Every structure is written in structure tokens, then in C-alpha cells.
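Protocol step 4 of 6: record predicted structures for both targets in the notebook before any analysis. Target 1:
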Amino acid sequence: MRKHGVVELLFTSDGYEDKKTDRGSIPGVLKTFNFQKIEPNKEHFSVYMQKNYPEWPPMVMEFWTGWFDHWGTEHHKLNVDEFGETLTSILKSGSSVNFYMFHGGTNFGFMNGANNANSPKHTITSYDYDAPLSEHGEMTAKYFKIRELLQQHLPEQVPKVLPDPPATKGCRAYGSVKIDQFIHLDSMLQSLQPIASKDVVPMEMLDINNHGGQSYGFIMYRKELKEGGELMINGLVHDRAVILLGGVPLAIMDKTTEDKVIPIKVLKPTNLDILVENMGRVNYYDFASSLLNKQRKGLLNTVTLDQKTLQDWQIYPLEFKKPFIESVLQSNEWKSDGKTDVEGPIMLRGTLKIQDEPKDTFIDMEGWTKGVVFVNSFNLGRYWSKGPQKTLYLPGPLLRTGDNQIVVFEIHKPFSMMTMVDIPKLE
């Protein structure tokens, strides 16, 4: 970087643990630290810096104010008093501090990511993080604790009177939205051009997007079967798959199921569909590993029937980009016959009517199973009944006065309504 003219301050940022203390540091570069708490029986990071790097000021580059959540786990929270104790220790030492996160926000669309390469844990849509500012920008107890402690530890030459916190706009509970129309997967696929492929391939290897492949969303593999037998999905799927025969779900696979065997009966030519969801890629890992450049999503291995490899597939890249959503919305295949026993994969829609200026709200997905929500063709993100997240944050700027179209792609069992509430449910 210096060779190519970069003159700004460079720094490294690593966890303050024995095994990582010097792992990422570079001679002549400011060393900074990441942590959530300071262990009482360990040398204080500022003392460590004074002893080993006296030419550099102490700096906490990532003071973790909370933590992110994965599907199927508890919502992480950091007690405000414990948070305050650590921040006090940082400020008393004369160190500078950067909060990660001060405001977490939302993993809109398919941008949630994952951790733990060997057995990925996929991050939820909300990135609230239990941060000083909530997902929707409300000031929390941590925010006011920061104000309190900064006022106590400001240098004498700095005025101790801080400006008043800004007023908040609040959220609106718009009530129930009836989901009264649906369209089946086969009808959705009419808005896509399938890709003929001799073998199954991961989404990144599809010749689409200017030869860049598919990056996000779902991918569906279709093969017409003329006879039954013992179907095997070899290896692992990446990351979660629903196997359907003639549109009827037969099995679910995820990264805990390997070499799945499914006995199937076929009395007439019938479509075998394997719908695979890319649930997010690992977004940081050991710098010495090549993993970040090798993650592939979809089917990476063969599919066999009675030990014979199935070939000649039709592959559908379900990226759920705006043109695709709008094309499906214009289809004549939407039904509104009052049925409540429909099964996914299926797309459904309803209308949220707003009379005045739109405000932030939250979509309570209670009753739904797993899928993705779109509002006025914007991808809000994923929901999953296993939690911990129960609501999706819907910012007011995505809404408009009048009719707002709510569209849901439900993989399993849908519900007949959803409720717009003014308080998030993250645990």
C-alpha cells in the first residue's frame, strides 16, 4: 500500500487474547484491539501497549456492544451495567474507543452471511446486535450510558454539555394484512428461462449475469423421471434443500444430512425438483485458509437413481431480483379461491393500506414457516419459525401512502395473514 502511494494511517485490529495478541500485527503499523470485556486476571491492554508498543497510543478498534444472532439460537444481549464497566475501564486508561456496533441495522435481502466454516451457522436478517442504537434507530439504555460516561471522562478543555438527543419518529402498528392470493411454483417458473445442463452444477457456475454466475437466492434443479427407484442426493447440499416429486415435498436436506436416500415411486413421467437455498456465505475466516474463495452453493455432487447418475437437467436460478418479482406479479396464474391448506414452495400476496405518511413498522411472521418477504418488490429478508427473530423490520421509506404490496415466498406452510406491529420481537 505504501508502495502505491497510500499515506494515510494504517492499523491492524485483532482480538486481545494470548494466542492472537501479536498474530495480526505488522512492524511499524498501529496495533489496535477487539473485545467485549476485559478479563480481571489479565494484563490490561493499555498496559500491554505501554510495555510493548510505547510509540503507539492505546486504541480499542472494536468494542463489541453486543453480538449477532444465528437461526435457532438465543438472542444475544450484553447487560448495560457490564457494558458500562468495560467502557469505564477503557476511558480511564486514556484509550480511544470505537463501538462495534453503535448501530447494527438490518441484513436486507440475502446479505446475512454465516460463520463457522465446518458447520455453518447462518446469521439472521436482523443485525440489531443489542447495540446502543436499535435496529430501527431508537436510543437504548446503552446509548444513554455512553453519554453519561463520556461526560464523566471528557478532558477538562472539552465542554461537558452535550447536545440533546434528537427526537425519534416512532413506529406504527398498522394491524393485520390478509394474504388472499397465491401462485404455485410452476407458474412462478414461467417468468424464468431455464438453463439446460448435462450435470447439476453449483449456482456460481451458471452462465448468467455476464458470465458471473448466480451469487444469491435459490436454485432449482428439475429432471423428468420416467421410473422410480432409490434416489440419492450425494454428499451435502449447500445449504438447505427441499426435494419434491410432482410438486409434492418428499424430504428436506441441510448441511447435517449427507448422502440422503429417498425411495420414490413413479407411475408416469413426473418432474423431480430439488430446490436449494443459499442461506449465506461465511464472511470472515482464518487468513491462511482458501475457504472464502471456495464457497459454492447448490448441488456440488451427483444425483443418482438406483446408483445411475441422473443427467440432462433444467436449472432455474431463482435470484428474486426486482424484474423477476414484477414479472410474477403480472402473471395471470394468481389464485384467490379462499383455500387455506396450500403448501409451499409458493408465493403469496396481500395489500397494506396506509392513509397518511408512512412510518417504520415490523412484520410479525407468527404462523409462517420459512421464506422471504418482499414489500413493493424490495427484498426485506428471510424469516424462519425456529427464531430467535419473529419480526422483520420494515422502514417507513419503503412504504407509500395508499396501497403497498406485501409478497411472501414461503417454502413450506404459509399462513393466511400477517400483523404489522410497532415493537420488534427478537427473542
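Target 2:
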Amino acid sequence: MTLDEISNLVAPSQASIDRAVSWLKTNGAHNISLTLSRDFVSATMAVQDAAAAFSTPFCWFKHSSEQRIIRACTRTEVPDDLAPLVDFVSGLNDFPSIQVQAHTSVGNPSAFGNEPKNLRKLYSIPEGTYGSHPNNSQAVTGFLNQWFTPNDLSKFLKVYSPDLEGQSIAKIVGPNKARAGTEANLDVQYVMAMGAKVPTWFWSNDMLDNGQEPWIEFLKDLSNTRDIPLVFSASYGEGEHTFDLDYVSRSNVELQKLGVRGITMLAASGDNGAGCWRHRFEANWIAASPYVTAVGGTSGVPTEEAASLSSGGFSNYFPRPRYQDRFVAAYLNQSGLPDQRLFNVSGRAYPDVAAVAENVPICEYGSCGLPFHVVSGTSCACPIFAGVVSLLNGARLRAGKPSLGFLNPALYSIVSSGGYPFNDIVAGRGSGGCGSEGWPAKAGWDAVTGFGSPNYAKLLEAVMKF
């Protein structure tokens, strides 16, 4: 579907828009704007005006790190006649949490086999496979002040993918400041090495949404832009409980819009294993959204097993899609799993797939030799898998077929029909939480590596049939 077609489906009535805008103006708001789909309204308000409009005082809050933020002290409210028109109000009373999803160490790259040429071989990508097509494109997200360095990208491609030497980022949306970040360098280098010769964007946002990744701002921007990449790799996430249900529910609406536009969103599953929050396993968001493809982590080349850091499990917010039922039921019926009282048995299960997530060499700070940075985390796995998806899109586009869009229904359908275009991971276990062991890898789908890592040759055969 086109953005205009989606807008016609989701846009509220003009009367509803007028009512919301009028209320904002009456309460001192300025910089009021609507997205192209007309279902988002943004505004700026002084604290005293927001306090009066939303019926709440505002307070200063101080974190142990000395960071101070101002937030609503109580629950926000809108007038009764406006409430039915509003999904949620963001930016007033959510608090941040801190989660790091990329871990770096220094070592000799020759000690590890996880460079692009070996990953392409591991994932059955024939030499000389490229995703070239005028309409193909891919992107990585840049949040939390993560920027990439063009010089490091050039050196990385020269050293590890010499057939791609001279390739560069096709487009930058948002800032890309001078101080580089490991996360951004990793994402750009591996999505381009795996999604070879696919025009690549770096889409950044230096805002904080209540101290966290600006998901709604980012998704709103996508909803407000006609020409966007076909694949996004997002290596960021927070504990699911740190987001209001209204916030993530509306984010899911935006993710559904992307899917029907033919856009694929992949998200790193996280690096804290099963996690723990209030004596129950903690899902990570956005990976636990039913409308993204969550990528877990493996370790070891050429024999992969589940990486202990790989997060997975079950959403505490969202029910499980029906296409997952058969696979999740089979997994939960096996022995050696955590106590079911620790998790939401009926929740959206994740991850969906996996890729290498440990000891991945990158170029950083102008050096590709010793001392060398070797990165671990599902932040590695996500751009690796995203690049594979871009290769698949390239093949489909060259055959006159549309891009894959939201992947999960197709992936689960392929396996339901008897295919298995993945390297099944049957060894290893994710780290635990709440005093319990974590999720073990098992044959078929499991809650630490999903269906496993990609077998490009088999995936290509499968996706070219529809």
C-alpha cells in the first residue's frame, strides 16, 4: 500500500483533528503540526501550561547518576470530550531506564572467524551475491547519540569486503556528529557487508523520548516520509515495563503501517538473557512487538550455538500471534525449560530468528589492526540478518516481485509448510533471571534463537515462490 492509501484508512475525521488542535491552542501550545497521515499531532508547551492542560503538577526528579529531569508528578488527564479521540499522550510522565546492548573488547581479529566473508559462507550466500536494484534500500537506526564514521566504514570494507571497496552511505537522515559510537559503526559496517551493494541509509534521531530511544518520534517520521528504505535494522531496546501500554500499542500501529508499505523492521532481541522484573522474566521492547522480526544471538563459527547473552521469551503486554502457536506449544512441551510461573505463557514469543552475536570484528577510531575492537551483542546479529533480507529483496525486485515487508507471517508459514530455510540451533542456553536458568536452544523454534540463523540459498528458494 502507498502512504496515501494508508492515510486514507487511518486518518481521523476533520472534526476530531480540529477539536484536538483547538484544545492545544487554547492551552497555550505552539509549534503544532500534523503528520501526513494526520493521526499524530505534536506540540510544544511551557511547563505551567502543560500542568494546567493535563491536570497535573510537574516535579524535578533526580537519578543516582545525577541526571535531573522534569516530569508530571501524577497521572495526566484530558477533558472527557477529548479523551475518546486520544490514543496516548507522550513525553510527560515516563521515566528512563538504562540498558546497554553492545559490548566491546579488544583482541586480535585473527583469533575470531566472524568477519563478513566467513559469515556469508556460514549462511550459504554464494560469492558475488549482491542486492543491487534501483528500488532496493536498507537502513540502520542511530539513537542515544550513536554516530558512524565514514572513514572507518571505508577501511572496514577495504579490509573485510574488498569487493565492496568504495561503497559509502547513500543517505543520512538526521544528525551524524563527529564523535563516533561503537553501535553505529557496527551497524553500518555489517549491514553493508552482508547486504552487499544495497543503497544504505543512516537514519538517526538525537532526541530522547522520556530519556529513552525516541521510538514514537522515529516511527512518526517514517509515517511522515514517502520514500523510505525497505529494510530497517534497530539495535536498541529497553525493558518492556518501562513503556506505558498506550505508548507501545500506538507504536504497534505505526509498525503495522510499515509492514503494509512493504517495509521490514528487524530488532535486536537484547543482551540480558531472560531478564527479571518483579520476580518474573522481563521482555525487551521493541523486540517483543508482534510487528517486528526479533533477532536473537548465536556464538561460534562454523558451529553455532545459542549465545548466553541472547534475550528472548514472552511479552507481558501482547498476546501471541496465531501463526506462532504450533511452534511455541511444541517448545513449551519439552523438558529443561524455566518454570512457567516466571513468564506469560500466552504472550508474543521472541526472537523469531538469530545470527552471530559474539566476537564480531569492526573498524573503529581509524584502526583495523591491533589494538582491535571486537564486539558482542544481538546488536551484531540484527544488521547481519537485515543484510540477508536486503539480498532477498534484491532478488525479488529483479524478478518483478514486491519487497518482503513484514516478515514473520511468511517465515512461520514457510516452516509450517514443511520448509526449514534456517540453520537450526540446538545447543546452548541463554542466561537466566529471577533465580532461574534461561531459555535453552532446542530443535525447531526456541526462545533464545527463534528458528535459527539464515540459510540464504533456502530462504531465496522459499521467498521466490510467493
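Step 5 preliminary note on target 2. The longest helix spans residues 378-398. The radius of gyration is 22 Å.
Proceed to step 6 after PI sign-off.
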